[in-house]
Amino acid sequence: MDMIACIEKKKQGFPLSKEEIFAIIKSYTEGDLPEYQMSAFLMAVWFRGMNHDEIYHLTMAMMHSGETMDLSSLGLTIDKHSTGGIGDKLTLIVAPLWAASGLTVAKMSGRGLGFTGGTIDKMESVTGCDVALTPETFLALAKENRIVVTGQSKNLVPADKKIYALRDVTATVDSIPLIASSIMSKKLATSADVLILDVKFGCGSFMETKKDAKILAQTMIEIGEKYGRKVAALLSPMEFPLGFAVGNALEVKEAYDILGGNGSADLMKHSLFLTILGLYASGLCANVDDALNVAKRHIADGSGQKKLCEMFRCQGGQFTGNDLCSALDLPHNGVELIAEQDGYITDLNALTVGTVAMNLGAGRKTLNDTIDHSAGILLKKNVGDYVCRGEVLASLYGKHIADDCQEQLEGAFTFGTKDEIPADGSGTVLFDSKELELKGIIHKLLTDS
Predict the structure, then answer these.
(1) Which is catalytic among the residues 160, 193, 198, 266?
(2) Could you tell me where the DSSP H helices lie in 31-147?
């Protein structure tokens, strides 16, 4: 392979062949291709992009750079991926509801970096929970319980780990071909039959605009369908935190509460969206109304909550029955943020909330940072609420709470009149090459839940 010729070809905007792409990925993964040439290639892709065939070949090359997992013995399997967000504990809500409905969720998740929280970090806030399962244990638990979540295997898609680290230091993270191939190479390597994508946009996510989020979602759907998988995506705004809890133990507690039918209306709505999308896309339910009824039934009868507890117990969680909260490292004696004025909350900047939570110890600034599982923020008020001066807006938890954390969090809140409260953002679903605005379903969720 002539790497300089490949870089020049992409620099000029010409497509690379399957053989060239596979050779580049193999050479870099095995350490034969120097980082300066791979950096030049990534920047050329950032500027010139890739066509659909190139993106698919890049995904396949990365997927086959290491081990893959065969889930065919588990029956109908489903997986989900979120592009990140503040307070996103949806895996811990949606996966148990899918499992309670008869789908098998065998999922590998990652850790958080920066203001986005990782599912694995949240799970580790449960005393004794093992998130480094062997492939044999992973498959056995999936067969036994229909639900298991573990950390990503070191041997799974090693090319992505190397390439992502390089993208992170060469300003090439925000490239849709590179994002799509990174996500889909890992998801296809674990071979679930159905994949549900939760693609967020706005200030609290990596995709700032709905337009970019839609392009990313469509790209990933095309990759999955070409590989023979069912893929559906929910596009949703992430201007505000999702739910009331931002942190690790706090978010596990909130997920547990939602599965018990309690908690934030917006988190309940988003959880139901993803649950019904998975039930419908998998073919388990014939239409979204049936899927909604199934999801709500598993919340009402407690079977979703029971599945969450079952997952944690079988992975070593040290508690009995459904007493999950007894094993959580929940915080005490937080610092309260008090409202200095009356008015309606018209904005709550998700990025600021996430940054403050990270500074409290709930997130990582670098990969080697240690997480404080009890740290975080518990919001007492959210967008649309009327607040009187002197009321508590939020509680901050952490071993060391600097004064500027309170000041920064206070700056995340914007107050105004009732007329300035933003309208509820509607989700958009992409599935079977169709686009469906879920306005009717949104109305149903808001009025019936």
Answers:
(1) 160
(2) 35-48, 52-63, 91-101, 119-123, 135-145
